[in-house]
Amino acid sequence: MKVYAGVDIGGTNVKAGLVNVENGELLISHCVPTQSNLGPKSVLSRTTKLLERLIIDSGLNQKEIGGLGISAPGMIDLATNTTIFLTNLHGNWKQVHVGDWMKSTLGLEVSMLNDVRAITYAEWQFGAGKGVDSLVCFAIGTGVGGGLVVHNQLVLGFEGTAGEIGHQTVDPNGPLCGCGNHGCLEVYTSGPAIAAEAARGVLQGWDTKISDLIDHDLNKLTPKIVAQAAEMGDEFALEIWQRVGRYLGIGVGNILTSVGVKKVIIAGGVANAGDLILDPIRAEIKNRVFLMPVEKVEVVKGQLGSTAGIVGMAAWRAKQDVMEKASDPKV
Ligand SMILES: [Zn+2]
Predict the structure, then answer these.
(1) Mean pLDDT, the chain, as a whole number?
(2) How far apart are CA 49 and CA 283, in angstroms?
(3) Ligand 1 centre from 318 Cα, in Å?
(4) What is the distance between the alpha carbons of residues 33 and 12, in angstroms, rounded to a whole number?
(5) What's the gap in Å between 145 CA and the centre of ligand 1?
(6) What share of the chain is helix, strand, coil (3-state, %, to 5)?
(7) In sequence order, what are the residues at sequence separation of 6 or more whose Cβ sits closer than 8 angstroms to the Cβ of residue 217?
(8) Cα separation, 95 vs 226, whole angstroms
């Protein structure tokens, strides 16, 4: 068994785990609140402690850990493992040398990736995309991220930025997005966008089961509730999923036309809506894509859930080790 560590630094939590990179099995995982308001040093030192505790609790010796992969939500200099800009972390982590810090404190070799590229890599290696040579993954939660695998390679692009497919324009006159553009796919399809659309109906007194499900308390409104209402046959909730799926279908169609992937994986919390969101995507791409065999493209839900990023990063670091050894003339 080859064991590597994976860490997912998120806006809310830092998750860490030890992974058998031969089969993607998560052996053990722990989680602490990120508290990014305390600054990068505090987050990194707590992440080091988290990993140390993880190794002790696993009963493994530190020497048995092959290396460490770390994902973060934003732009990262992949050559130096330095963060360039993390949108959801306090202070945006400009020029934080995460790789150097971890190597000096834990003595492990480090690789980094954007968080959704890590999910994409995990789903490709061990989940819904196993055995497929070209795929796209959309991870839909608070935002909409993505990743691409083309011809058996995770596409990194210029400075690791390939895959920001939640920020493709789907409406030139659309509302402002957090990224600065107007009418991004994310504006219409993120978890908060789904909840906001549902809130509009509730506040306007529409006849919808959503009002009862949240006990008329808008704070309880989540995409999960909107899915529950739709499964009960609620017309308004069904309409919301149709609209979200239609926009996603436009975004997926753009990817199919430009890259020609075989499989589309919808991951992240919102994907739990299942066919409520997948069916309208399947329908929309057939309406819009004509220059590739769209009828053979599968649109499926991600399989690895919320720990996909940890698994993906551990496996990604293991792959870098294999590649570095292969290119080292001394070995
Ligand atoms: Zn955007």
Answers:
(1) 96
(2) 48
(3) 32
(4) 6
(5) 10
(6) 50, 25, 30
(7) none
(8) 40
Supply the pLDDT for residue 331.
60
Nearest partner of 114 among 130, 91, 137, judged by Cα: 137
Asked whether 77 and 84 are in contact (CB, 8 A), the reply is yes
pLDDT band at 328, cuts 50/70/90? confident
In this prediction the pTM is: 0.95
Q: Where does the chain show beta strands of DSSP type E?
A: 3-9, 13-20, 25-33, 65-72, 74-77, 82-86, 110-114, 135-140, 144-150, 153-154, 263-267, 298-301
Distance (angstroms) between ligand 1 centre and the Cα of 111 equals: 27
Cα(191) to centroid(ligand 1), Å: 14
- Per the CB < 8 A criterion, the answer to whether 318 and 312 are in contact is no
- Per-residue pLDDT reduced to its tens digit, 119-158: 999 999 999 999 999 999 999 998 999 999 999 999 999 8
* Alpha-carbon torsion (256, 145, 160, 19), positive or negative: negative
Whole-number Å distance, alpha carbon 28 to ligand 1 midpoint, is 35
Distance 323 CA to ligand 1 centre (A): 34
Nearest alpha-carbon partner for 67 in 11, 8, 126, 111? 111
Question: What does the pLDDT look like over 172-231, one tens digit per residue?
Answer: 999 999 889 999 999 999 999 999 999 999 999 999 999 999 998 999 999 999 999 999
For residue 174, how far is its CA from the centre of ligand 1 (angstroms)?
Answer: 11
Q: Kindly state the tokens that stand for 323.
A: 């590649």
| Angle subtended by helix axes 98-106 and 40-58, to nearest 10 | 40
Q: Which tens digits make up the pLDDT trace of 71-100?
A: 999 999 999 999 999 988 999 999 999 999
Tell me if residue 97 falls in helix, strand or coil.
coil
- Write phi, then psi, for 42 (nearest 5 degrees): -65, -45
Distance CA 286, CA 282 (A): 7
Where does residue 320 rank: exposed (0-12), middle (13-18), buried (19+ CB within 10 A)? middle
Q: Which residues pair with 132 in a beta bridge?
A: none
